[in-house]
Amino acid sequence: MNELKRKDLLDIQSLDVEEIKLICESAQYFKDLFTRTIKTVPILRGKTVLSLFYEPSTRTRVSFELAAKQLSANLINVSVATSSVVKGESLIDTVHTFEAMKADYIVMRHGVSMSPHFLSKNIEASVINAGDGYHAHPTQALLDAYTLLEKRGSLEGMHIGIVGDIKHSRVARSDIEVFKKLGAKVSLCGPPTLIPDDFSVYDVDIYYDFDELLPRLDAVQMLRIQRERQKGSHFPSIREYHRLFSLTRERMKKQCKSDIIIMHPGPINRGVEIDDYVADCENSVILEQVTNGVAVRMSIFYLLAGGASLEGIDD
Amino acid sequence: MKILIKNGRMIDPASGTDDRKDILVENGIISTIASEIPPSADVEVIDAAGSLVLPGLIDIHVHFREPGREDKETILGGSIVAAKSGFTSVCTMPNTSPVIDNQALVRFIKLEAERGPINVFPIATISKGAKGEEISEMGELVQGGAVGFSDDGLPVMSSVLMRRALEYGRLFDVPMISHAEDSVLSDDGIMNEGKKSILLGLKGIPREAEEIMIYRDIVLARLTKGKLHIAHVSSGGSVDIIAQAKNAGIHVTCETAPHYFSLTDDAVEEHLSMAKMNPPLRTEEDRLKIIEGLKNGTIDVIATDHAPHLEYDKMQEIEYAPFGIIGLETAVPLIITELVRNNGFSYIEAFAKVTSNPSRIMKLDRGEIKEGKPADITIINPDEKILIDNSFLISKCKNTPFIGKELYGKVLCTICKGKIVYTA
């Protein structure tokens, strides 16, 4: 198998383990390619990629756009603030318009969960989910998994913690799914208001005491507090949150395994969930996650496009 | 005009009759019920062999959108859909635009309904403008033809207003129909709060938002001795609360909708906005409790909460799409398939929920087959399979998650006030 036999990439749940491994394997190829001097290959030549972001994003958007450009796609970047969206046009009508202009791939970020799924049922083009509501962020999860695979070779038996605003996090949901599919044990940590009990549906352990969890972890993904997605008060103050759930230098020195892998999907709020020392220390792979994001997204485009042989392509 | 319905299996929940009977209708009235009535020359004979002959069905919770959103449905159009679906009486909810909070508007609905095939009984708002501040002019409204009061679509958040409404309503012996939801607790949720909402990343509505309000309304009914009816019960916990209240002798009745005994929140993943309604579809555990509540009599009524929405309204991201599905045309097939065939309800048990019980609660003086009563009769072939698709649905709006489903139970003929208003 060297292609994804599917129209869309919507979530981790619908991917099987073979597909996840395939994405990570060819991501390795693209990482080698674009971290060397050769940055552009003609895999998507003649194809049009539409990047449609209904929510502000910098890193994911740039990462997708770089990936598409490095594969020689025509890239159209729709800025929602100036588009017909603000004129009251529906999502389906907007996308049909772009389909009529022969867009092949639609990379969409949307604030409402399940919107990419809704879209994919109603259009022909491939839909790649760049994050929907609290639901899924499959490319982030795949790059997180790839980053861990790169470090450890396998996730089998690893214990990975995800800490912070789990309730409002699409990254948490997709990470849980991909880590578990690859054989890791996953534990969540945060206040009960940000980890509904029904997260037990994922077969994960839930810790409220960060210091109890930390010594057990091989890797930890620190999440940002999604202030913009929260309504009402889920915890009393940043100060108190910081005291209970921030990964600080002191905490790391005292509680963590010496080779713990520190991850963060970004953007980082230094001094809230993580401090300067931890973000920049040698255990931190935060910037590698960003580099790997481009490779994983190139890999996904490539595999959705049919996964033609790569031999000689970088000559 | 005379109509003779021959050879049918008469199901009359009011009298507990399940027997082969002939029924003669004269001048809009059921004149004779007997085991054998010979046809005479001036009689139109309907052969109902192999079919159920039921009292005309009653749906006490529909949204016909008129006045205001006639593009979605009208009183006349909705009445035609109801007749096709076996219903001869409906109660229309008042959350139209403007809302039904004065006598002129109640009269308008009655007048519009006269052009249609069935009986329409308006429900008026509990509060003026459905604003939840002052009780509406209930006396005027009852005089105009209102049969009950509800701010349906919105809860009555003010406990003191609900108290006054239950108290004042005693003047007219009419039910206050509670859209039971603590809207602060439901907090802009989209679907049932639970494992499924976690998996889909959609904001949940806890069942407690419903249960808290039912508790509140029940203790207010105890305080005021008013008549309380709970609309669209969806949660298993609500069934327990209502059962307790009934045991304690508090005057409370309730309804559920066919989708709550047919579907669970699993449907949201597949059908997205077509499975978005308020209260939301719950879990299998709740669904089974609803069925149990129907079986043991805690739940008195099945009402559809028929809520038409245009395609472009529903064809949106799930958060932006409105709540609600249509229910009239799928009601009989779901009752027969889910309750009778899958859960062993007798026809009397199942159809009491859409005939004698709603008639009693809303005091409609209908819902039974009895000599001297208005001839509202529905004939159904319970064994005929039907496919719910766009050609089956005649409703203007086709917002239902049941599209594509094969169900049992075909409405063959609907008679209202002695006139045949629908034949398949």
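The radius of gyration of chain A is 19 Å.
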